[in-house]
Write a structure and sequence with these properties.
Elements (H helix, E strand, L loop, with lengths): L2 H4 L1 H19 L8 H24 L5 H27 L3 H25 L1
Helix pairs in contact: 2-3, 2-5, 3-5, 4-5
Length: about 120
Amino acid sequence: MGLSEWYYLPVAALFNSCFYYFWQKKYGKKDIRGLHTLGLIFAGSLFNAWGLDVLQRMLDIFTLVHMLKISLGCWLMFVAATSARHFAVNGWTKNKFWIDYGGELIGYLAMGLIIYALT
C-alpha cells in the first residue's frame, strides 16, 4: 500500500485532533497541554479514521449518505454506547456527556466526509 493510498488517514486524523482540541478548550473548558497528550489525541484520531476507512472499503461504500451512516453508526456503537455506561455508573450529567461526546460525533462525521472526499 503506497503513500497515495492512505495519505487521507493522517489528514482526517489531524483535522479531528485539531477540532477535538478546540472543542474541549471552548465547550469542555479543559486545559490540554503537553506533547504526550496531543500525541495520544492524534493517535486516537488516527485509529478512528483507520476504522472508518476499513468499514468503507469492506462495505464498498461509494455514496456520501452511506459514509455518513457509517460515521454515525461507529459513533453510536463504539463511542456513545461505551461512554453512556461510564457516565451512568459514575453519575455524570447528560450535559457533560454531550459536551464531551457531541464533539466526537461532529469529529466522526467530519472524518467520514474527509475520507469520502479523498478516496
